[in-house]
Amino acid sequence: MGKTKTLFDRGAREELQRRMESIQPERRPLWGKMSLGQMLAHVNASLEMATGDLPTKPKNTPMANPFLRWLVIYVMPWPKGTPTAPELLANPPGEWSAELARYRDLLERAGTRSPDGDWPRHPAFGQMKGKHWGVLGYKHLNHHLRQFGA
Q1: Sign of the C-alpha dihedral, residues 64, 10, 98, 139?
Q2: What is d(CA 148, CA 19) in angstroms, rounded to the nearest whole number?
């Protein structure tokens, strides 16, 4: 098993950035209902959630159990069609280049925060350490980039 990728690794952030920039705006998803613009607005909202700029309401899910949370973050593949917090779907997509610039900024802000600092509560996974946010963030972005073939 290889090294777990995290937003705290500059190389991983650069990879995520290159992959997002490689997607042509007219590309259709390989699965799911989101358009490319909706996906970018969604991942931007998820990064805002990670930085604490987008508050979310807690859900009562079994994922807050530390063992289940660990399994989902570190072991299991990200399932297609996973339900998401409504706050992460609330914003309509903006103009592509503006959303892409926002993605760059948010990715850097989330990835350069201290993993040891205070992190917001995740709506489904509950209170997590920064190191878990970094891995979960990478895994979530990777999932959506794969959704669009990047």
Answers
A1: negative
A2: 10
Tokens representing 114? 């201290």
H/E/C letters for each residue in 109-135?
A: HHHCCCCCCCCCCECCCECCCHHHHHH
Contact 29, 123 (CB under 8 A): no
Q: What is the pLDDT of residues 38-91, one digit of tens each?
A: 999 999 999 999 999 999 888 888 888 999 999 999 998 887 877 777 778 877
pTM: 0.92
pLDDT at position 1 is 46
Encoding tokens for residue 47? 């990064």
Q: Which residues on neighbouring strands pair with residue 122, listed in sequence order? A: 126
- In angstroms, the CA 88 to CA 80 distance is 16
The pair of three-digit structure tokens given for residue 148, joined into one six-digit string: 């669009």
